[in-house]
Amino acid sequence: MKTSRTLRTFVGTCALALAVAPAALAQDTQGGGSSTRTSTVASGQKTKLRGAVVSSTDNSFVVQDDASGAQTTVLVNDRTSIKTKGGFLGGGTKYAASNITRGLHVEIEGRGDGTNLVAEKVRFTDTDLRTARTLEANIVPVEGRIGTAENRIGETEQNAQRMSGQLDELAAVSNAAAGGAVAAQETADKAVQGVQVANERISNIDDYTPEQSIKVNFKLRSAVLTPEAKASLDQVAEYAKNAKGYLIEVTGFAYESRDKNVNRQLSEQRAESVVRYLVENHNVPLRRILTPFGYGAMNALNDNKTRDERAENRRAEVRVLVNRGLNGAPADGTKISAATSPE
């Protein structure tokens, strides 16, 4: 179970850790066109919070609440107790605030200062701490690569602008040279088309389109892959190896229990089984796999009343997403991500 939890958090794709913005707890607000919910804590109000750290500084960090999804700015000071849970007689190991990094799942108790939550206790497990450190070590080089890619896109846009200016000059020469007007116009049209293609590929650099989608089913209350499921995953892995600029999205579903937490845990285990099989048996890089997510009993394919309907719903869904900008796929205005509802 510890290994599954480590894999689940590690492949928490860097997009989740980097996309969210700081916020606070208690009073939901939305503004400035942002869909991220923020909250504040009334002064002196005692509050408990559980969630994942999405950003951190020397004396504060931002947590996204597990239940509401709202983001809270948490302040730490010299009186804040920061320890792991468990240990001999429940003592745990003490840590400095600098050990609270992106991706760490924490439990916090504290009081509000009118805006933020001033932490009195911060608790987490040793396993979650190791996972968060591994995640942070992988995020930093990815951020560097993103910065490099943005610089290259900027250079490409500047080149496109220079090309556009050159086209204006070509048009003037074409008008002056009556005998070569037709040929000059054809040359200018081709150059314009090249600029448009370049601009379109730049605008599609962060867009993905689904190229292949499969469903694999599981036995009752099981997260073990069947031989049929493995055969389907073999085909997905073979397809992905020949794709350029691809990502793999994995989601799990479970409907075996009336307890939504049991269903959610089982659905997460099913998604993790798929990820582990692709990584261990086909060497699919973790950077190519989006955060696996367990939907629990959400998004049923049918009424889930008969035996056949329940068997169909016990599943994991796998989609191969291909980068439109790198592959030159036609733009349709659709973006695909781990948050997209399964089809």
Key structural traits:
4-stranded mixed β-sheet; single chain; 10 strands; extended; about 20% strand; OB fold (Dihydrolipoamide Acetyltransferase, E2P); 5-stranded mixed β-barrel; disordered C terminus; 60s Ribosomal Protein L30, Chain: A; about 350 residues; 3 domains; 8 helices; disordered N terminus; alpha/beta
Task: Walk me through this protein's architecture.
This protein has 343 residues and is α/β, with parallel strands linked by helices. It folds into 3 domains: 2-133, Copper binding periplasmic protein CusF (OB fold (Dihydrolipoamide Acetyltransferase, E2P)); 148-203; 208-327, 60s Ribosomal Protein L30, Chain: A, CATH 3.30.1330.60. 40% of the residues lie in helices and 21% in strands. The protein has 8 helices and 10 strands. It has helices at 2-10, 14-19, 126-176, 181-203, 227-241, 260-282, 307-313, 324-327; strands spanning 46-56, 60-65, 71-75, 81-84, 105-112, 117-124, 208-217, 246-253, 293-294, 315-323. Strands 1-2-3-6-5 form a 5-stranded mixed barrel. Helix 1 (2-10) runs parallel beside helix 3 (126-176) and helix 5 packs across helix 6 (260-282). The protein is extended and about 95 Å long. The protein starts with a helix and ends in a 16-residue tail after the last helix.
Percent helix = 40-55%
* Strand element count: 10
CATH class of the largest domain equals Mainly Beta
> How would you sum up the global shape?
extended
CATH topology of the largest domain: OB fold (Dihydrolipoamide Acetyltransferase, E2P)
